[in-house]
Amino acid sequence: MISSPAAPNPPTAEMVVSTDAPAGPRVMVLTAGGQHIAIAASSAREVAQRTAAIRLPGAAEFVCGVINVRGTLVPLVDLGRLLDAAPADPSGWVITLDIGGRRCALAVDALPVLRAADAPPGARPTRHVFLQAEVCVSGTTLPLLDVDALADDILLQ
Question: Average pLDDT for residues 114-122, to the nearest whole number?
Fold first, then answer.
């Protein structure tokens, strides 16, 4: 006798996504210099393994130099140093950003995680010029990187 396959298990509470909860912006959670921050996912162009940078004389301390991204030299910013923390892991990752038609790359410690924020950005943290707001992600409040301020400081010099 051939038995019919068992019916699939009904979805559990962990598998069901509520459509009533307000969806916040999609963000990438980054770790650099022991700090966790978020950036708008729409700013990110690609994620790649970090490569050696060519140092630029006279560049700010948080600018590692330039890296070759698909044939284009792109400034590499050490996110840890940018936030006055420890330098990012040299064997870490690079997030390439598209900022107003120009590119910049962020050196981070670990592979970024893509998440939907629990709520839209809130109050602006007062501790750093490159942080525009705070966003709640998976129950944790994280500072949100101000990509436009980064562009003004790095790309428009």
Answer: 76
Give the amino acid at 86: A
* Of 116, 117, 120, 125, residue with least CA distance to 143: 125
- Under the banding of pLDDT at 50, 70 and 90, the label for residue 144 is confident
Domain layout of the chain by residue ranges: 26-154
Q: What is the DSSP letter of 127?
A: S
CA distances from 68 to 48, 74, 101, 125 (A): 11, 6, 17, 33
Alpha helices in 11-143 (DSSP H): 79-82
In this structure, the number of other CB atoms found within 10 A of the CB of residue 81 comes to 19
Fold classification of 26-154 (topology level): OB fold (Dihydrolipoamide Acetyltransferase, E2P) (2.40.50)
The mean pLDDT of 55-73, rounded to a whole number, is 91
CB atoms within 10 A of CB 28: 23
Neighbours of 152 (CB within 10 A): 15
CA–CA separation, 35 and 113 (whole Å):
14
